Amino acid sequence: MIPSANAQPITQVVLPGREKISSGKVREMYADGSDHLLMVATDRISAFDVIMREGIPDKGATLTALSRFWFHKTQHIVPNHLQDDDNAFAEALPAELRNRTLRVLRAKPLPIECIVRGYLAGSGWKEYRQYGTLAGEVLPTGLQESERLPAPRFTPSTKARSGHDVNITRQQAEEILSPDLLQQVEQFSLALYQFAHEHAWERGIILADTKFEFGLRDGKIFLIDEAFTPDSSRYWPREGYQPGKPQPSFDKQFLRDYLETLDWDKSPPPPPLPLHIIQGTRERYLEALHRLTA
Fold first, then answer.
1. Phi, psi (deg, nearest 5) at residue 152
2. Treating both helix axes as pointing N-terminal to C-terminal, what angle do 59-73 and 179-202 enclose, rounded to 10 degrees?
3. CA-based Rg of the chain, rounded to a whole angstrom?
4. What sign results for the dihedral spanned by CA atoms 74, 80, 86, 89?
5. Could you tell me if 56 and 278 are in contact, meaning their C-beta atoms sit under 8 angstroms apart?
6. How far apart are the first and last CA of the chain?
7. Is the Cβ–Cβ distance between 21 and 29 less than 8 Å?
8. pLDDT at 144
9. What are phi and psi of 67, to 5 degrees?
10. Tell me, which fold does domain 109-259 have in CATH?
11. Nearest-CA neighbor of 83 among 63, 62, 107?
12. What is the pLDDT of residue 42?
């Protein structure tokens, strides 16, 4: 469902009578019986690991719509935790939360982030410039910023409870997960990326990189959290793509670029966001939703 503009962004959520399990930068998790959770996406937005004071109207509904879309599209590759097909659970929710809530299975999250990069950007470009490597593995010389890699690369990172996630090598990841489990999530991650990259490409969007979370339930691997949202993915317009420079994006890079122009040390409290930055960020998220889901 395409979200319609809310009068005010929703940055705080209260579900009376529900046990809150956790609260993240964007999502609030509530218990729904012993086997399920309600995952509510707020309109909060963070940059450089700092949550902004202002929310982005409809951001949570956009993230929820995209995750639901991708969970359905990719369930032939790996099972996921989505359990809200009948939408009956939503009738008990406040109206303003129905299009931003997913009912999901409980699973034990794996302690790493599974990142796939198809193009050199962000921290991957920074590492390559300094060392000629990506996740500790040597890449061909002479690659440019935003250039497509010879093949997508699996580049795991740690999960930080606070502060920044840290990129790690495959060897370091094997010390956190077993080699067999790591191989499985790597194969799932690459297959998911390749499928979504092709889908996005056909709709005029480049999926430069993306991040997955996986969990275990009864010994089986599930894709959990979100899927291919502008919060977890780097989306570029295909039209005008040109390696050798940063690309315009359909994600919160627009917000980061604005913050980089300020005299701000990237620690709390965040600076106030002007209206044109809030509106511009919202428009980019919605553009990704419209193009990808058609």
1. -55, 145
2. 110
3. 19
4. negative
5. yes
6. 11
7. yes
8. 98
9. -60, -45
10. D-amino Acid Aminotransferase; Chain A, domain 1 (3.30.470)
11. 107
12. 98
Task: Give SS3 for 1.
Answer: coil
The pair of structure tokens assigned to 31 is: 């218990």
Tell me if 116 sits within 8 A of 189, measured CB to CB: yes
Tens digits of residue pLDDT in 170-199: 899 999 999 999 999 999 999 999 999 999
Region label for 69, one of left (φ > 0), alpha (ψ between -120 and 50) or beta (otherwise): alpha
Query: In whole angstroms, what is the distance from residue 81 CA to residue 15 CA?
Result: 21
Gap between the Cα atoms of 19 and 227, Å rounded: 25
Q: What's the rounded Cα separation, in Å, for the pair 262 and 266? A: 10
133-163 pLDDT tens trace:
999 999 999 999 999 999 999 999 997 655 5
Distance CA 104, CA 129 (A): 40
Q: Is the CB of residue 146 less than 8 Å from the CB of residue 152?
A: no
Cite the residue boundaries of each domain of the chain with CATH code 3.30.470.20: 109-259
**Do residues 32 and 89 touch, judged by C-beta distance below 8 A?**
yes
In the chain, the amino acid numbered 99 is N
Provide the residue type at 141 as one letter: T
Q: Are 118 and 208 in contact (CB under 8 A)?
A: yes
Please provide the average confidence, as pLDDT, over all residues in the chain.
Answer: 94
CA distance 118 to 40: 30
Domain 20-106 class, CATH top level: alpha beta
